[in-house]
Amino acid sequence: MPATQGETVAQEQSDRTDQMPGHDVLVVGGSGVDTVVRVDSLPVPLADSVGVGPILEWPGHTGGNVALGLRTLGLDVKFLDFIGDDWTGEQVRDRLTEGGVDFETLISPSGTRRAVNLVDKTGRRMSFFDARDPEDLRMPREFYLPHLRRARHVHLSITNFARYLYDDIAELGVPVSTDLHDWDGLADYQKEFAFRSDLVFLSASGASARIASVMREILREGKAEAVIATAGAGGSYVMEREGSRTPRPIQATAPPGPVIDSNGAGDAYLCGFLYGRLDGRKLEECARLGALAGAYACTGEGSAAQIGLDDLLARKV
pTM for this structure? Predict the structure, then answer.
């Protein structure tokens, strides 16, 4: 049966995309706008109203932070996501464009994701995430597939629609990473991301004393070559498929200045680690680069928290 005009146009667009230069990292999902509220302590007191300092707002969220952080480290980054046809979506688009990220979007009927983050005087935070994406939201295959074919590495945020890219990623043999954030090792939502990624990041706070067993389960049940658990000021832990089943501790790095905000520190750690991985460095060295980037992120707000390559390598220990 002859191709329709629409199919022909789509194929021509795909062919043109396939002929373009490749990207170091393709990031999928996880953009949005953060509203940051500074409070004296967490949890906040139960009261009708609480006086706070200036309330700040900037584009962030995990996917946006990772895309901007990797670009600041000099990597060529492509970012695909849904945003809303709204003013918050324009904020996201403008910030990523300013940061040199090649950002390509689809319009979400539910609008751009948002989060409200409470940050105390020590830099600790509590995030209220607006998970507004409809359950049936899907990224069209003809939209993402040409970019998968051209990527050295794919990073999937744990937005629901991103899980439907795994089959094509596996068929193409492209390495993929993900960040499970504070997964407790039990919730079903994150399991596919945990078991189908080559590099798995998560926060040790989610599973607390059980983090070693969660890391072992990811290696046992999934395909990961390495699992990395971040523990803030407590450093991080790494575990490889080939090697000991006891997590190896990586010492935390002291921030180069006063701690202002821990928002995005985990995303910055991931960026430093991925830079090292794509540069062919060993696991422990990647983790140390991640620790440096994460510590730097705590000393600034928004884009000021993203470390550049020269600073990262100059501070390398």
Answer: 0.89
Single out the residue of 260, 312, 314, 306 nearest to residue 71, CA to CA: 306
Q: Residue 313's CB: how many other CB atoms inside 10 A?
A: 13
Report the amino acid identity of residue 111. G
Pick the closest to residue 145 from 13, 5, 3, 6 (CA basis). 13
In Å, how far are 16, 18, 19, 144, 303 from 3, measured between CA atoms?
18, 20, 22, 21, 46
**Cis upstream peptide for 43 (omega within 30°):** yes
Q: In what order do the strands lie in the sheet with 114-119?
A: 56-60, 32-38, 114-119, 125-129
pLDDT digits (tens, 9 = 90+) for 69-119: 999 999 999 999 999 999 999 999 999 999 999 999 999 999 999 999 898
- Phi, psi angles (nearest 5°) of residue 285: -70, -40
How many Å apart are CA 139 and CA 270, to the nearest integer? 24
pLDDT digits (tens, 9 = 90+) for 31-49: 999 998 989 989 988 999 9
Residue 133, both tokens:
């994406």
